[in-house]
Design brief:
Number of helices: 10
Radius of gyration: 25 Å
Distance between the termini: 59 Å
Order of helices and strands: HHHHHHHHHH
Low-confidence stretches: none
Mean pLDDT: 91
Shape: flat
Largest sheet: none
């Protein structure tokens, strides 16, 4: 009986296996690279239309995060301040600073270049559209701004301090006690072991922030999920 297949076809399975292996290796290498901070924009620090210093407003003046980000504890998404929020103070404070020209242009009707348009802040942190994240759910269960955004109170210019990658989120969901705080401490950027002493008096066995986190995890009945459906609805 005649051979229907040419001799070169004997090597076809080997060629297919080699190509498949190369493709899989490429996917693995790409994943290994794109799962690193190099691709998750750690350090991203865009220039803003107004050089707003969190160090001055938060660290020196003691401004509460919720004064500007007023939706963070009541909404699924946070918000940047409107011109009105800034104008409440700066129509009186540092009003002649050239750095505030965009604010005057937006809010001051007597300003020569007034156009009434909103200030176009550049967004620093942004989750992909396919990811669901609820700010209020985290803030109202003891997760501080600091855990996700770093020491914002010390930043002259805000930058992305954490990767916000899927693995990064899952690590927190696996051990939330490392980040849980009493609700009244959520916006306290100086929170640490020294602050635990006042809570340790009423709770024996608490010596560190993580000890207190374990207590709060039980108190709040926190059972974070780690499945894909947690964020990908």
């Amino acid at each position: 009986m005649a051979n229907f297949f040419p001799r070169w076809s004997n090597l076809l399975p080997l060629k297919i296996a080699f190509c498949a292996g190369t493709a899989l290796a490429g996917v693995a290498l790409a994943f290994a690279y794109y799962a690193t901070p190099k691709a998750t924009t750690v350090g991203y620090q865009p220039a803003q239309p107004i050089p707003f210093s969190h160090k001055i407003h938060v660290d020196q003046l003691g401004l509460d995060c919720r004064y500007c980000h007023s939706f963070v504890d009541v909404s699924g998404t946070s918000n940047v301040p409107t011109g009105n929020t800034c104008w409440n103070c700066h129509q009186h404070v540092q009003k002649d600073s050239p750095k505030l020209a965009p604010l005057h242009k937006s809010m001051n009707v007597s300003y020569e270049g007034y156009d009434g348009k909103p200030i176009e802040w550049v967004r620093v942190h942004k989750a992909p559209d396919y990811v669901y994240f609820n700010h209020s759910a985290h803030v109202n269960r003891g997760i501080s701004c600091q855990s996700c955004h770093g020491d914002v109170d010390k930043m002259e210019v805000v930058f992305q301090a954490e990767s916000h990658s899927m693995a990064w989120c899952i690590d927190c969901h696996k051990a939330p006690e490392k980040h849980l705080r009493p609700l009244e401490e959520v916006f306290n950027f100086s929170y640490g072991d020294k602050d635990v002493a006042k809570y340790a008096k009423a709770n024996s066995g608490i010596k560190t922030t993580e000890d207190l986190g374990l207590k709060l995890k039980q108190q709040f009945d926190i059972k974070p999920k780690t499945s894909c459906a947690t964020c990908h609805h």
